Amino acid sequence: MSITPTPHDDAAGLVPETAGTSLLEPREVFDQQLFEREMVRVHGRSWILLGDTEDLEQPGDYITARIGLQKVIVIVGRDGSLRGFLNSCRHRASSLCDDPAGNTGRFLTCPYHQWSYRLNGELAVVPDQDRMYGPDFDRADYSLVPIRIEVGWGKLVFGCLSARTPSLRDWVADLGPRYDRMGIESTRRHPRELDQVYTMNWKVFLENANDDYHVRFVHPRPGSQIDPLGTRNLAEGWVCSSYKPYDRDLDPGPDFPHGPSFDGTGFFADFIFPSVNPLVPVPGQLVTVRNEPLTPTSTRLVTRVYTSDGDEVAAEELLDEIDRTNTEDTDMIAVLMEGLRSPFLHVGPAASWERRSAHVMDMVRAETAREIAPGEFTHSGAAR
Ligand code: FES
Ligand SMILES: [Fe+2]
User: Fold this and answer.
1) Predicted complex ipTM
2) Which of 15, 43, 139, 251 has the highest count of CB atoms within 10 angstroms of its CB?
3) Residue 357 in contact with residue 23, Cβ under 8 Å?
4) What is the number of structural domains in the chain?
5) Rounded distance, CA 277 to CA 262, Å?
6) CB of 110 sitting under 6 A from ligand 1
7) Residue 138: CATH number of its domain
8) Atom of ligand 1 at shortest distance to CA of 93?
9) DSSP letters of 62-74?
10) Do 203 and 82 belong to one domain?
11) Mutation probe of ligand 1 site: the residue of 86, 88, 90, 91 with most atoms within 8 A of C-beta
């Protein structure tokens, strides 16, 4: 117990704790300090989905996003290569641009005092430099701070702040070859997307998004082709996968879930820790539900649909279905957010179909407890 008892300490005893449960407890949801630590230790060390290459084709094209509470920008250089930077002017706290995507021309110019950066991050212009800073000012000391960027499957752009995190390919492990077979690179993004901020803690969303137990109760779909009772799930490392067969009698063989024999035989709901739930209804269709934590009680969800056949009607139907599912989930989460206000409550045991939720909560706790190693956030080429 801490020196100053928390409301949870004061309220201990009414509800017994459940030994060995990994599900999210009320005391982990509303704490601002814990949230800020998670944003550095969990998000700062993870590969975070930032957007896709469709917005990054010409020199000067950029996308903006966040890794935890840090704004970042990915931009195409004059040499055609992708670079990522903190979206933070080296002068003061202004971001360089906040549009989700666009083209900046030859320079990134800060709106506040108009320090201007080349597309490779070098500081090119400081207005009135001699009068403001004198002769010893060296612009080379104030380049934009680079971050790691990797593109998954020729399409999905991920960023990472930690020098010690393994490559994206290692991060996604066995999911990599399965998605390689899907031809994601040749899909196109449907023009409409869903983008909404919800009153929910990001971990409550993660727990829900990896919970296979609630599906047939919260998302009843009479007559659906998908058989929820045939659900199989797997949680290993940074990736979780759930599979619902279109034919319950299909035997999930030894190469489950990533082997080729499962392609097209069911609905996959995957998770790449901690920022994105990719859904694969059928080969050639991909849905990404990206979560962006904003505060302990608000989280943004951005949902995009990618298709390989250009069938806009099918893409609209799919997006409508995901919208309905998101609404059902976030309505349920709103109820949970109220319930989790209780300092008296302790949650119960995880069901076998909450295996993914429990695994993800364990991962969050382990990363949050792990000390930052020396040099973890230092990158070669980073300006001071
Ligand atoms: S904050 Fe960017 S130029 Fe001053
Ligand atoms: Fe759900």
Assistant:
1) 0.97
2) 43
3) yes
4) 2
5) 19
6) yes
7) 2.102.10.10
8) 1
9) EEEEEETTEEEEE
10) no
11) 91
